[in-house]
């Protein structure tokens, strides 16, 4: 059987969200680089995979998908049983609901607060040659502190976000948190000991360590 294909730079946070799930289930995959600088993501070939001209895209035989969280769920649904991995907890209604809740929190609350810091401190200066907008950073950090207050309370009661088990909800946080740790503001996590311990558990996973090696914190 041919390996599935992930289209997009492996160092992309959105591609990494898929790759970490592929690593967790031990699936064979191929990363097909998309040169963003050359605007390959806007080419007709890529637009056929992702009509919004974004990365990543995904192919499994005649199935072509886009949107990283949807792709990652597809991967877990396809391979989890054979791999003996249960990251969606779909066999338990309550646990599956909690995975969904914290997956939504990551997408709509955590990531919108944290990712602007990553873009302003790492990506924009390196890729666009523009200085960091400190106003954006400061505003985002204030939002992030409020989010981390909630996470600290949750993680003081459970080892992971959905409960006392690793889930898809936790893995979703890996890519952007990894890059956040390369910014001058990484020490913010020190004020949230349960959040920091949770992140250290995630960062120590073999899947995360393998992918992190290809996600440089200096561009």
Distance between the termini: 36 Å
What Rg is obtained from the alpha carbons, in whole angstroms? 17 Å
SSE order in H/E notation?
EHEHEEHHHHHHH
Structural class: alpha+beta
SS elements, strand count: 4
- As a percent range, the share of strand residues is 5-15%
Shape: globular
Low-confidence stretches: none
Q: So how many helices?
A: 9
Helix content: 40-55%
Indicate the multimeric state. single chain
Rounded mean pLDDT score: 95
Largest beta sheet, briefly?
Answer: 4 strands, mixed
- The order of strands across the largest sheet is 2-1-3-4
Describe the structure.
The chain is an alpha+beta fold and 219 residues long. 55% of the residues lie in helices and 7% in strands. The chain is built from 9 helices and 4 strands. It has a 4-stranded mixed beta sheet, covered by helices on one side. Helix 1 (13-25) crosses helix 7, helix 4 crosses helix 7 (174-180) and helix 5 packs across helix 8 (193-203). It starts with a strand and ends in a 7-residue tail after the last helix. The model has no long low-confidence stretch (mean pLDDT 95).
